[in-house]
Amino acid sequence: MPTIVLLALVGLAAQLVDGSLGMAYGVTSTTLLLAIGTNPAAASATVHLAEIGTTLASGAAHWKFGNVDWKVVLRIGVPGAIGAFAGATFLANLSTDAAKPVMSLILLALGLYLLVRFTLKGLRTDRQNLPLRKRFLAPLGLVAGFVDATGGGGWGPVGTPALLASGRLEPRKVVGSIDTSEFLVAIAASLGFLFALGSQGINFTWVLALLIGGLIAAPIAAWLVRKVPGRVLGSAVGGVIVLTNTRTILRSDWVAVGDTATEGYVLGAIALVWVAAITWSVRAYRQDLATGRGDVAAVGHGPSAPGDSAPDDEPELVAAVDERPTR
């Protein structure tokens, strides 16, 4: 029973972060499942089965508030589904001993990315006038989907910053489109795991616990981001992921430190860096507020940033997305 309650709380917290930042539900949930001893393929399958429900609820909420660009959803979501199915099949055919450090390494890389990105810069919003092209969205979706399935998360950490940095979408539509397209990725990854594994190792009670927590969180994520800065949330979540997966790697056959004191020193040093990163993020956020540059718009909620006033219903602009030259 305590495990079920913990999973529900993790699902709730992970969805609050994901709904605010457009990333981190899968990475956070999978990290916890690995930490309590679930094998990698079953952990990723459990999370993706739960995500079918959470992404549907999140996508519906974003659609209701006009945060979804359906062309982007299809152009990135369909290749993402293909990549996720391939990634699930690949992970399911690795032995548990080989897969656990591989998944932890992917999660560690994503955690480092989140920690560094949000600590130093937040989410980038200064290049929103560049066009989105099919030849950019399709490979991005394919890679993000594969990473998402093999790492138990990664669709948001790969897709959201890439669209913000390279696309013309305003931040709220980036987050809304990524969250909505993740529904296709979750279905494809789940099918891949079920075809390869059956229901072996998947605890459907855990799936339900994560799902319930995520469904509760989905409609209040927009409210939370007004209270807790996205930049601080990103740094906090990134640090948890780095710390947990470093511990897993240190205890794997790849490293096999075998010395509790050495492991403690390494994890202690990471914890100090993590605390420093959160402190830095808080200070940077306060400076942004002082200069009138809060990060609410940067993570996709609240009013659009100045200059993002193009109407949503201008067909000539939508039709020209793939043809206009990069400026």
UniProtKB/TrEMBL annotation:
Transmembrane helix as UniProt keyword: yes
InterPro entries for the chain: TM_pro_TauE-like (IPR002781), TSUP/Inactive_protease-like (IPR051598)
Cellular compartments annotated: Cell membrane; Membrane
Topology in the lipid bilayer: Multi-pass membrane protein
Assigned keywords, A-Z: Cell membrane, Membrane, Transmembrane, Transmembrane helix
Primary subcellular site in the record, as a coarse category: membrane
Keyword Iron-sulfur: no
Record region (Disordered): 297-327
Residues that span the membrane, as ranges: 72-92, 98-116, 136-155, 175-197, 204-225, 264-285
Family: Belongs to the 4-toluene sulfonate uptake permease (TSUP) (TC 2.A.102) family.
Stated name of the protein: Probable membrane transporter protein
Organism: Cellulomonas xiejunii
